[in-house]
């Protein structure tokens, strides 16, 4: 049988799948009729202000009752203190004083919410099966971990910054992300990707950026830095021998800022399909700046970060990270979104809309 190579033949193997992406709600709840429709809801952490049982009951109760999504996936964040039992047993008194919480009881509020999938630095393969949905499949990895703030470290799920320990802690954490990950959900951002603070610091993790280069997921979601909310897409440099290189970063420009939702269309039917295996199979390799694009060119460069090693775009090269490259060169781009609902660096009444992402995924 002749091999099918046309765009139409390839596209029959995928279907549009809609992800509704939020983060950093900090006890805020949103009425279901004000939430965008979608197939999958993802919350990237900071569900609460401080992880108290009453806060968790309110937030988890709200998420648990949402019925318009076939799958609802959540991770914790640094503010969800009680969910990190090892941290809370040591530092909880500094946050809650005489109103100390029972960490396991707080964790059970999340674990017992049967309609929610809680990921704590782990991977799942999702098969959407609703007869009214796209019936697609994808792999997802979710993690609550973020690099610490200036000492002392008094927040949950934090690790030593790579600049402080030569990347030992971060490397141990982010080397665990599977190479077949389609959707990467982390509470904190990668270095220089939706991580700029109010003081113009790049708060993201260098080793997470390196992990993204190796994995090159279709979609990487985060929060944590409220003021860095937004969407961009990274074109990975797979030809250079420089490790962890990026060809370009393009910022998403909302074509309908007054609309009911912020919709990012990465499908083959959209104005600028994502160049990543399974997301736009058979679509021509459009160069940045193609007509009808909603993305602005920000420039190019290389950010090796820490702990680099010899790599090459030739999978057969002795200098190549063969596991990351061989038979995976079609993973050329990643869409990165900081989905913070809070619009200010602090908790406030000013809110952002959910970010909605459409992807072509395999059936």
Descriptive overview:
The longest helix is centred in the N-terminal third of the chain and has 13 residues, at 53-65. This protein is of the alpha/beta class. The protein is 18% helix and 23% strand. The chain has one domain (13-362): Purple Acid Phosphatase, chain A, domain 2 (4-Layer Sandwich), CATH 3.60.21.10. Residues 1-11, 278-291 and 299-318 have low confidence and may be disordered. Strand 9 (183-186), helix 7 (206-215) and strand 10 (219-222) form a beta-alpha-beta unit. It starts with 6 loop residues before the first helix and ends with a strand. Helix 2 runs parallel beside helix 4. The chain contains eight helices and 17 strands. Strands 5, 6, 9, 10, 11, 12, 14, 15 and 16 form a nine-stranded mixed sheet that branches. A six-stranded mixed sheet has the order 4-3-2-1-17-13, with no helix packed on it. Strands 7-8 form a two-stranded parallel ribbon.
């Amino acid at each position: 049988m002749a091999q099918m190579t046309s765009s139409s033949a390839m596209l029959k193997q995928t279907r549009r799948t809609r992800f509704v992406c939020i983060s950093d709600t900090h006890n805020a709840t949103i009425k279901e009729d004000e939430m965008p429709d979608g197939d999958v809801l993802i919350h990237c952490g900071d569900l609460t202000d401080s992880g108290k049982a009453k806060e968790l009951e309110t937030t988890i109760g709200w998420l648990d009752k949402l019925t318009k999504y076939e799958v609802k996936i959540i991770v914790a964040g640094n503010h969800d203190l009680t969910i990190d039992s090892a941290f809370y047993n040591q530092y909880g008194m500094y946050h809650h004083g005489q109103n100390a919480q029972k960490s396991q009881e707080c964790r059970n509020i999340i674990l017992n919410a049967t309609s929610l999938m809680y990921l704590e630095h782990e991977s799942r393969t999702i098969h959407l099966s609703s007869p009214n949905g796209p019936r697609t499949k994808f792999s997802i990895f979710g993690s609550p971990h973020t690099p610490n703030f200036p000492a002392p470290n008094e927040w949950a799920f934090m690790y030593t910054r790579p600049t402080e320990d030569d990347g030992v802690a971060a490397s141990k954490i982010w080397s665990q992300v599977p190479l077949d990950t389609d959707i990467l959900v982390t509470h904190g951002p990668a270095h220089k990707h939706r991580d700029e603070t109010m003081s113009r610091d790049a708060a993201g993790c260098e080793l997470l950026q390196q992990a993204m280069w190796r994995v090159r997921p279709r979609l990487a979601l985060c929060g944590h830095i409220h003021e860095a909310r937004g969407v961009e897409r990274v074109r990975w440099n797979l030809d250079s021998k420089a490790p962890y290189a990026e060809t370009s970063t393009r910022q998403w420009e909302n074509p309908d800022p007054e609309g009911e939702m912020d919709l990012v269309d990465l499908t083959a039917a959209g104005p600028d399909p994502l160049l990543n295996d399974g997301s736009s199979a058979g679509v021509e390799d459009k160069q940045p700046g193609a007509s009808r694009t909603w993305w602005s060119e920000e420039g190019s460069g290389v950010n090796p970060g820490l702990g680099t090693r010899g790599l090459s775009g030739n999978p057969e090269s002795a200098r190549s990270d063969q596991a990351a490259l061989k038979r995976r060169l079609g993973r050329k781009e990643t869409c990165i979104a900081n989905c913070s609902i809070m619009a200010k660096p602090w908790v406030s009444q000013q809110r952002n809309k959910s970010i909605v992402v459409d992807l072509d995924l395999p059936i």
